[in-house]
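# nightly structure sweep
# worker-07 picked up a monomer target from the shared queue
# config: single-sequence mode, recycle default, output format = structure tokens
# input follows
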Amino acid sequence: MLFFKRNLIPFYLLSLIFFVFAFYQSYKWRWICDDAYISFVYARNLYEGSGFVFNVGERVEGYTNFLWTLLLSLGYYLKLEPQFLSLFLGIIFYLMTLFIFFYEENRKSIGKIYPLLLVHLSLFFHLHIFATSGLETSLFTFLVCFGLLLWEKEKVLLFVVFLFSALVRPEGALFLFIASLDWIIRKRSWIPVLFGVLFLGFLSFRFFYYGDLFPNTFYAKGNKGAYFSQGFYYLLYFLKSYPLYFFVLFLFGLQTYKRLKSQKENRFLLSSILLYIFYVLYVGGDFMGIRFWIPILPYISYLAFQQIHDWDLDSQIESNKKSYILNLYSKNQILVAFLFILSAAVYADPLKIKGTRIPDWFGIVEERMFYEDHLINTSRYDNKALSDFRVAFFGAQAHFIYFLRPSFAFEAESGLTDREFAKKKIAVRGRIGHESELELKDLLDRKIEILLDNRLHGTNLPHIQYTWRSIPIKFYLLSYEPAKMNSLCIRSDWNCSDLYQLLFENHWDKTQRKMFVETNGIR
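# output follows
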């Protein structure tokens, strides 16, 4: 009960209100992005007994979220579709992230009227956005933040939490490694060695099952060399989105300097935060705005809050009242608290310029604004329609692969599900995860029959039309197999009249197989 007696009743009433507000906002902005459907395919195949694979019989680790995908697979046993389970778990872990910081704030505060840190975090727009998305961001953020708080208290549980974070995303291994190094160097305990062995066991599984030490997504997105110029824009995008967050970063800097100077036991912890920031800058961030900053933002805000809390305590000591900084703070306490809240509450969309929206800013996009909540709905798909075909798709079309279920699917934008294409060299850096250039040979080598979009420069291909939720979509053909195409074209959502018209006009026998690329002299 002491936990609830530290502050005044309004503190807890306002806390409840902002928890409800955070839940409402995360539910209101719920969405699923295209990349999530790649994990959904892996989860379903594992449940159905085909293994942890995207294409049956082909072991490629095309996800970056092992533990998250495993959780979604277990959901099938409970008759929970990943579209629902991912949203439910995402919001739960978002609220749990808020709770662990509320717990810390309540534990440290005495007699407060309102929860400053909780209000700040609950107003953070992108925390609402990435509470869902179908991806692991919310879970990873909770694990990283919880682990950092446990690290402060030197609790052994931190290694369990960081091990889980390393299983959710590869970046989690950074925190596990540095925390382990910290405890071993300070001779705190040899327990980290046990968790190191467990993580090595996971890496061994990955190597023997997939044939690589790193996920295929690492080669597709992160193995292209340093990209600091794009990383700078990724950081600038965040600062353009939250212009008042400079104030939080200032407070974070003061608190970090203070701890590095006087608290040796926190040096490795703070170094892990700085190394994570360096890593994001090195790889160029992500094409999804702010997503890679999300896992550490709550803790950065927590350290900024800690600086305010320290000033509160120091300003109450009579001998400190002659300090210029503390005297200035005492006169502006309300303003400081107000700025701290506004730093998260004030959001300026960098993609909205003079009343119109631009599609991206230096390759960075707001995926939620593009997808809205359309991919949550699982209805009005022609399930298993492409089960006889080998298909190439591009990022945003992953949901079609999940429902139409082709016999083979090739992610032809970055090679997420293809080992060779992911490691393909690129000549010019561009938008993260969208830099590889597709060639006809890539498709022919994989015996692709249908492209969900024609991205072969200078190549005209015949098409068929698929009507999805009253939206006509053109799928392009590399080859024509009469029996398979006829069985597809008789389905109500498919229109092949343009294809058959082309065959007729060119006097091609529609009962014979045909490679359309031959007509362009490209093969």
